[in-house]
Amino acid sequence: MDTNLSYLYRCIAWNLPNLDDHRRFPIQLIPNNPERLMPLLLGPALKAGPVTITHQQKASQQSLESFLHQSGTTSFLIIHQNKLIYENYFDDYTANSVVTSLSVTHALVSALVGIALNEGSLPGVDSPVLPQLPELANRISPALTIRHLLCMSSGLLYREGQMPWSDEARIHYSLDLRQQLLECESIEPPGRYYHYNKYNLLLLGRLLEKVTGMAVPDYCAQKIWSRMGAEQPASWNIDSIHSGFAKMDTGFNATARDVARFGLLYLNQGRFGDQQIIPEAWITQSTSIPLFDEAADYQRYMSRNKPPLGQWVSSPIGYYKYLWWGYRNGPHQESDFFALGDLGQFIYCSPLHDTVIVRFGKRWGNIDWWPVLFRELIAKMRN
To answer: Which residues form the Beta-lactamase-related domain (predicted)?
Structure first.
C-alpha cells in the first residue's frame, strides 16, 4: 500500500490518540522478568471522604469514587510508603488491562537518556546533537544540545493540530519516523522558549538508537523493564513493521500497576533490591527545580504553549525539567514531580510524602488540574 495513502488513512480513520493506540499501531514487545517480580503490598485502605473538585474555577464536593467514575477514569492507584492503599478500575478495565500511556512515555525516555549518559554512550547533556546526527546538517542549529531537547526548549518549528499537514499529526501517524525527522527545522535560538514539541522526542530516540546500537524498546527491556519487578510484559508502539522506529512521544503501553512500579523506582532513587537501575544522580537532576542555566528561563521568556502547559511551566509553583513536570512544595522542601499525557494520564510522585499516584483515563474529565486533587489526597493521608 502506498505510504502516503496509509498515512492519510491513519489520520482520517483513527483521528485522535487514545488508550487503545496499542491495538492500532504495530508494537514491539518489552519482556519482563517474572523472577524479579516486585509484589505490591497492601496497606490500610485510603479513607478519602468527600474531595474538592474544581472545574472552570468552580469548586464542588464529591466522593472520590463517584468523581473518578464520571470523569472517564479507567484506572486509579495510590501507593503510600510502598503499600497499595487505593486501587480502582472503571468501564470494564481491570488490573490486567494494558493501555497506551500517551505522553507519560516521556518519563521512560528520560530514564533511558539518563542511563545512556551514565554508561557514556551519550557524551553529556550539554553536548551538541548535530555531531551524532550529521544527516540533519543545514536543518538544526549547531547550538542545539541534548539538554535543550530534554527541556522542550529546542527552538525547532512545530505546528500543532490534527490536520494532516501539521507536524503533530505527521509525527503521530507517520509510517517512517526517521524520514519524518529529516523535516525538522530550527527557527529560533535553542534555550529561549519553552515549546512542547514532539520532534524533541524523535531526536532523543534517534540519538539513543545510534549510540546504543539497539532499538529503543530493546534498550528499555534490557535496562529497565526486565530489572524493575514488572508484573507483566510491556510494549512500545512503532511507526510500521517496515521502519520499526519506536513512537517516542506517545507509544509506551503497560498496566497501571506496572506504571506505578516505575513510579516507585523513582521514589526509591532508581534502586530495586540490590541493583541501581536508573542512576540516582540522574533522578535528582531530572526532577529537581531547574537552575537558571539548566533550562529556558520560563518565567522571563514567554512560552509557545497555551494553558495549562505553558501556564504551568511559567507559574511560581510549576516547572518542567528533563521531560518531567514539577510541583514545588516550598523553597526548602523537595518538590513533587509528574509525567503527564493527553486525556489525563499521570504518574504523580511525591518523595516528600512517599507517595505515587497513577491515573489513566479516556478523557480529561470535568476538572481543571488533576495535580490539585492528587495533593488533596496526599494531605488526607497525613491527617
So the answer is: 73-289
DSSP state of 302: P
CATH for 68: 3.40.710.10
Question: Using N-to-C axis directions, what is the helix angle for 105-119 and 198-212, rounded to 10°?
Answer: 40
pTM listed for this prediction: 0.95
Q: Quote the domain boundaries for residue 344.
A: 3-382
User: Within 10 Å of residue 328's Cβ, how many Cβ atoms?
Assistant: 15
Number of separate domains in the chain: 1
pLDDT in tens, 120-135: 999 999 999 999 999 9
| Amino acid identity, position 149 | L
* pLDDT at residue 300 in the model: 44
Give me the helices (H) in 256-364, please: 256-267, 280-287, 309-313
The cell numbers describing 125, all together, are: 547533556
Round to whole Å and give the CA distance between 361 and 232. Answer: 20
Edge-first strand order for the sheet with 98-100 is 27-30, 234-237, 252-255, 98-100
**Cβ–Cβ < 8 Å for 243, 176:** yes
Segment 169-196, tens digit of pLDDT: 999 999 999 999 999 999 999 988 888 8
Euclidean distance between CA atoms 280 and 277, whole angstroms: 9
